[in-house]
Specification:
By secondary structure, the chain is an alpha+beta fold. Helix content is 53%, strand content 20%. It contains 14 helices and 10 strands.
């Protein structure tokens, strides 16, 4: 049965917390306990919010180029992609559809050679499913014109090849041409008309964008590889995309972002979970301070406990009195931690730059890290879970001292009074 607190127990418990103690050391330990719980809760809220911020930033960058879902027709290219795209766009949850052509190749310039992922796109359609137009640092997405054999390169790929806008690069396709001189690799000269920076090494170092018509002509295909879908909510993308494909006529295969990047996001989730439990140890250590505080309080209040027992207060009530006292200490600490943690997590994006300016250092240098600012994403669910776990720790910390107080024998406590 749950422990029900009576008004007299609550009154005495609160009175013990408010009372000026003869032993100032106990008051000091109580203050340390409150600060310990508060700092622990504040640290957990802030660090998890920053981790959420990094996760959100990485997710946005990955899904800014790697669509929410892709639809391909089994065994062949999409010859009539326009009709299919028009049909898919009318399904609930779909906010963008664009064709794409996927291939692999090798880029050469002067003496530089680098493997690349070739993606054929339609510039006017690509903006529906990706952020590439907003991430151009040189040139424009609209510079890709069919028949001109132009190319957009990732920043790191362009740097590796040593090219900039206006330079020529040679794309070597994995297919070969049979000529009188023998089997020759299929080559095509492209002009670099733009450079983009997504902020993810996967794209910036290996992705080359060309017009889809040029890609189909070079690789001798009669249609795009498939369709890229964008949903109104990335969390529902797996369900929405499968519902769409199940209602399409023909044989289609759908792949969503959770399948293509499952290892990455599982690693982030595991890291966040492990970090949560590690940081909860801070609150656990602070809870030991609550144990120390209550143990010393019980020792200091031996005579008071004996008097309460002699006037009819039951051991269960004595247990409740000291549990209330310890729980209140923990609640004050949790409240302090939640308020300070929420404030810090909400303002970390302005506090960190101020500290960097004051110390004249860059914690995340833009020359080294793709994400050069400390992001924060405060989530109500995390704050609630942290508060509940911290409260449970504080309640558990009160049990042993409260049991010790409840087992105090009046005769033994008053023997030397």
């Amino acid at each position: 049965m749950p422990l029900m607190f009576k008004p007299v127990e609550v009154f005495i418990g609160l009175r013990y917390v408010r009372a000026k103690r003869r032993n100032h050391f106990i008051s000091f330990i109580s203050l340390i306990s409150i600060l310990g719980v508060g700092i622990g809760v504040m640290a957990i809220i802030t660090i998890l919010s920053v981790m959420n911020g990094f996760e959100k930033e990485l997710t946005d960058r990955i899904l800014g180029m790697a669509s929410h879902a892709t639809v391909v027709e089994r065994g062949k290219s999409l010859s009539d992609w326009k009709t299919l795209a028009a049909e898919i766009e009318h399904y609930p949850g779909i906010i963008g559809v664009a064709p794409y052509f996927h291939a692999e190749g090798m880029l050469t310039h002067a003496k530089s050679v680098n493997g690349t992922i070739v993606r054929g796109i339609l510039p006017e359609e690509e903006t529906k499913v990706s952020v590439i137009a907003d991430r151009m640092i040189m040139g424009e997405l609209s510079s890709l014109v069919a028949g001109e054999f132009d190319m957009l390169l990732g920043k790191e790929l362009a740097r590796t090849l040593g090219v900039t806008v206006g330079d020529k690069v040679t794309l070597v396709a994995p297919q070969a041409n049979v000529t009188p001189a023998g089997i020759m690799p299929r080559l095509k000269r492209f002009t670099v008309v733009g450079i983009f920076e997504i902020g993810m090494h996967e794209f910036d170092s290996a992705l080359a964008l060309i017009h889809m018509d040029d890609a189909m002509r070079l690789f001798r295909k009669d249609g795009p590889t498939g369709l890229r879908l964008k949903t109104d909510n990335i969390l529902t993308a797996p369900v929405v995309s499968r519902n769409v494909v199940s209602q399409l006529p023909g044989y289609f295969w759908v792949t969503d972002w959770t399948q293509r990047h499952s290892n990455f996001f599982e690693a982030l989730k595991t890291e966040k979970t492990v970090m949560f439990f590690i940081l909860m140890l801070i609150v656990a250590v602070a809870a030991f301070n609550i144990i120390s505080t209550l143990v010393m309080t019980v020792t200091d209040k031996q005579a008071d406990i004996a008097v309460l027992r002699t006037i009819g207060i039951s051991p269960k009530s004595i247990l409740a009195i000291f549990m209330i006292q310890g729980t209140l200490i923990g609640l004050v600490g949790i409240l302090f931690g939640v308020i300070s943690g929420v404030w810090l997590a909400s303002n970390v994006e302005t506090i960190v730059p101020a500290i960097e300016k004051m110390l004249q250092v860059d914690f995340l240098s833009a020359e080294v890290y793709y994400i050069s600012e400390v992001p924060s994403d405060l989530r109500r669910g995390d704050v609630i879970i942290i508060g509940i776990f911290s409260f449970l720790f504080c309640i558990l910390a009160t049990i042993y001292p409260a049991l010790r107080a409840a087992h105090t024998q009046p005769a033994e406590a008053l023997r030397y009074e």
